[in-house]
Amino acid sequence: MREADNAPDPVMLVIPHPDDAEINAAGTVARWTRNGKRVIYVVTTNGDKGSSDPAIDQLELARKRENEQRAAASLLGVQETIFLGYPDQELEDNSEFRKELVRQLRSFRPQTVLTVDPFRRYPWHRDHRITGQVVLDAIYPFARDHLSYPELLDEDLTPHLVEKVFLWGTEDPNCCFDISLTFELKLEALKCHQSQLKVDDLPKIEDWLQKRARRAAAQETFPLGEDFHCIDIWW
Q1: Tally of CB atoms within 10 A around 214
Q2: Whole-angstrom distance, CA of residue 82 vs CA of residue 52
Q3: Long-range contacts, stretch 125-129, CB < 8 angstroms, 24+ apart
């Protein structure tokens, strides 16, 4: 597996839930921001069902998870974090959601987009699958074509073509980033999501993430990596 090329600037991550980026791509994000790249987060859901506490208030949980995501993004050097606010577990592959993603793509005009692989088989969170699929549809052809959502032209949101897409959580990785120097920062960013972590579980989570990073880099010359399926868009 080849190491991924440097991603064109700016970079946008489209994330199903707060904490998904930290689990899957924080080492890569930190690597890019350290090299001066502009990185934007777009979080599609508010994570308001992400708790096993029967006494939790959903609105309070959503507020807490937004604050946790902002703290993690700040730690990683992410320049801007956008929250679309859709309810957890209720994303739909529809025109409304697709148009909102086209709006974000045309507003920030990223050359590189990272998101979740929608084609993973067997159990896979519905929000992950739908986010990944709608992101790919929004990138091509909707963000590119001026007759797709022509009302966005009235907002000066002109067509935009993304150059590269990196999909995490893939069963078909074809590129890998070296995160050996940013792995510890990835862990610190993940720890910002306190609503999702129990103190007693932290050693297990760190061990799991390190094993995962070693497995991703098994065919590389560096010890720790994050792997993706990379798509070069040329049409």
Answers
A1: 12
A2: 26
A3: 125/16, 126/89, 126/91, 127/16, 127/17, 127/44, 127/45, 127/88, 127/89, 127/91, 128/16, 128/20, 128/169
Question: Could you tell me the mean pLDDT of each successive run of 10 residues in the chain, 235 residues long?
Answer: 70 97 98 97 95 90 97 98 97 98 98 97 92 98 96 97 97 97 97 89 93 97 98 86
Structural domain for 158, as ranges: 8-232
Q: CATH number of the domain that 104 lies in? A: 3.40.50.10320
Give the span between the Cα atoms of 16 and 167, in whole angstroms. Answer: 13
The total number of structural domains in the chain stands at 1
Q: pTM for this structure?
A: 0.95
* Domain presence at residue 3: no
